[in-house]
Design goal:
Layout lengths: L8 H8 L6 E7 L7 E9 L2 E9 L9 H13 L7 E2 L8 E3 L2 E7 L11 H17 L13 H14 L6 H19 L11 E4 L8 E4 L2 E5 L6 E4 H12 L9 H12 L6 H5 L1 H22 L12 H12 L9
Antiparallel strand pairs: 1-2, 2-3, 3-6, 4-6, 5-6, 7-10, 8-9
Helix pairs in contact: 3-6, 3-7, 4-5, 4-9, 5-9, 5-10, 6-7, 6-9, 9-10
The chain binds adenosine-5'-triphosphate (ATP) and L-homoserine.
L-homoserine (HSE) binds next to helix 9.
Length: about 325
C-alpha cells in the first residue's frame, strides 16, 4: 500500500480552498504504487462530479525536479497525449505543499492497467511510447537521468554497504550485478552528437501499471516521476523488460516484435538503435534490479508497501547478456 503520509481533514480542507475545483465529496487513499502517496479526490461543481488524483511526493522524487515533471506532463497533454494534466491553484501554481510534503493535483484518467500482459497490449503500447517521444521533442528543458549508467555503480555499492547479510541470496546478487556492470558500462552508447543515439524526453518507468487501456487501446499514461532526457531507445528497452517476460522469466518474442512494430508505426528506429538493443536492455534490467535490491535491503519492517523482487530483473539481465544481437528481440 503506498500511502506514506496521512492527511488530516482540516489540512485537506484548507489545501483545497486554494483551488477552484468544487466541493469535496469523496476522498480515499490508493493502495497501488510504491513511490508516492496517491489519493483519489471527487469534487462536485455546479452539479457536475469530477475525479482528480492528489499526489504527495515522497522517497526518490527530488522536489527541485517537480516543476520539470509537471511541465512535461502539461506539455505532453497539450500536444494531445493522454496523460495527467496538472491542475493549478487559484494563484496559477500546480505545485504546492500538503502535510509537510510537496503536493499536486492532476486530472484523473479512465482505463485499467493490464494485470496480465498479452501480445495484443504491446502494439498499442509501442505506438503510445513513440507518440510520447514525438510529443516530447518540443519540450526543451532537460533533466539528466539520475538513475542512468553513472548512478548504477554507486547504487550497487550503497546496497552492498547497507546489506545486513540476513538474506542469503543478496551477496551473490551483488557479485553478479558487479560483473554485469563491468560488461555493460564500457559498451553503453553515447548521446547523438557524440556519435551516439537519438535522445529526447523519455518516460523511463513505463511498466504495465503505468499504462491504462480501454477497449484494447491505450487510454492513458501515468507516473512521469522518473521521466528524464535520455536515449529514446532506452525507453523501448525498459518496456521490453517490463512487458515481454512472463512470470516464470521466459522472454516472449511475439510481445517484443509487436511492441517494436507499434513503436515504428510512429517513429522508425535507426540501425544503430536496433544494434544497441541488447546492451540497452541489459542496462534497463540492471537499473530495476538495483533499485529493487536497494529497496529490498532498506525498506523498514512494517512499512505499508509491497517490496518488488530484484531477482526477476537479474534473470532478465542474464537473458540480455546472452543475446547475440537485436535478432533476439524479433527485429
Ligand atoms: N491520473 C491518474 N488517473 C487515474 N488513476 C491514477 C492516476 N494517477 C495515479 N492513479 C492511480 O494511482 C495508482 C498509483 O499511481 P502511480 O503509479 O503514479 O504511483 P507511484 O507510487 O508513483 O507508483 P510506481 O510504483 O508505479 O512508481 C495507479 O496505479 C492508479 O491506480
Ligand atoms: N516500476 C518499478 C517501480 C517504480 O519505479 C519496478 O517495478 O521496479
Amino acid at each position: 500500500m503506498a500511502v506514506y503520509t496521512e492527511i488530516e481533514d482540516e489540512e485537506l480542507a484548507s489545501f483545497l480552498a486554494d483551488y477552484d475545483i468544487g466541493r469535496l465529496v469523496a476522498f480515499r487513499g490508493i493502495a497501488e504504487g510504491v513511490e508516492n502517496s496517491n489519493f483519489l479526490l471527487r469534487t462536485e461543481k455546479a452539479g457536475q462530479a469530477s475525479d482528480f488524483i492528489l499526489t504527495l511526493y515522497e522517497k526518490r522524487v527530488n522536489p527541485a525536479d517537480l516543476p520539470w515533471f509537471l511541465g512535461l506532463m502539461r506539455h505532453l497533454a497539450t500536444e494531445g497525449l493522454s496523460c495527467p494534466l496538472p491542475v493549478t491553484g487559484n494563484d496559477g501554481e500546480a505545485l504546492r505543499t500538503l502535510a509537510g510534503r510537496p503536493a499536486a493535483i492532476t486530472t484523473f484518467l479512465s482505463g485499467v492497467w493490464p494485470r496480465h500482459v498479452h501480445a495484443e497490449h504491446c502494439g498499442p503500447l509501442g505506438k503510445a511510447l513513440a507518440q510520447l517521444h514525438v510529443a516530447g521533442r518540443s519540450y526543451t528543458p532537460q533533466r539528466p537521468n539520475s538513475l542512468g549508467p553513472t548512478a548504477w555503480r554507486p547504487l550497487l555499492e550503497e546496497a552492498a554497504a547497507t546489506s545486513s547479510g540476513d538474506n542469503d541470496s543478496v551477496p551473490g546478487m551483488i557479485g553478479e550485478l558487479s560483473s554485469a556492470l563491468d560488461r555493460i558500462l564500457p559498451a553503453w552508447p553515447g548521446l547523438k552528437g557524440e556519435a551516439g543515439l537519438p535522445a529526447g524526453q523519455i518516460h523511463a518507468d513505463l511498466f504495465p501499471d503505468n499504462v491504462f487501456f480501454l477497449d484494447g487501446q491505450v487510454s492513458g499514461l501515468i507516473d512521469f516521476y522518473f521521466a528524464c532526457s535520455d536515449l529514446l531507445a532506452y525507453d523501448i528497452a525498459i518496456c521490453l523488460n517490463a512487458w515481454c517476460f512472463s512470470d516464470d522469466g521466459t522472454f516472449n518474442v511475439t510481445c517484443a516484435r509487436r511492441l517494436i512494430e507499434g513503436y515504428e508505426s510512429v517513429r522508425a528506429l535507426s540501425e544503430a538503435e536496433r544494434e544497441a538493443l541488447p546492451v540497452l536492455c541489459a542496462g534497463a534490467a540492471m537499473r530495476f534490479a538495483l533499485t529493487r535490491l536497494y529497496d529490498w535491503i532498506n525498506t523498514p519492517p512494517g512499512a505499508m508497501v509491497t517490496r518488488k523482487d530484484p531477482m526477476a530483473y537479474v534473470r532478465r539481465l542474464r537473458f540480455h547478456l546472452a543475446a547475440p544481437n537485436a535478432g533476439a528481440y524479433g527485429v
